[in-house]
Design a protein that fits this description.
The structure is a single chain. By secondary structure, the chain is mostly helical. The chain has a domain of 47 residues. Helices cover 81% and strands 0% of the residues.
């Protein structure tokens, strides 16, 4: 869903290069955070299976915060007069 919004925005001639760069940075950050959260969950699963659910939920909450950040940034840069 988010990637679709970004792809559509990237194709719009109204979006400046600075805005595209900022969005790509945010998406790269989100991807790295997602990978780090997944790695933490995997490590915790190996060392202590009892806290896997708690770790997973914490990682999921981090993902939700990042997704909300990306969505707010996308909304902030939608300046296309066609919308």
């Amino acid at each position: 869903m988010i990637m679709k919004d970004v792809d559509i925005g990237m194709e719009c001639s109204c979006m400046t290069e600075d805005t595209k760069t900022a969005l790509l940075r945010i998406l790269d950050y989100a991807k790295r955070q997602d990978e780090a959260a997944l790695k933490k969950v995997e490590e915790k699963t190996i060392t202590s299976p009892a806290i896997t659910r708690e770790s997973y939920l914490r990682a999921l909450n981090d993902d939700i915060r990042i997704i909300d950040l990306v969505r707010s940034e996308i909304k902030a840069v939608k300046v296309c007069p066609r919308e």
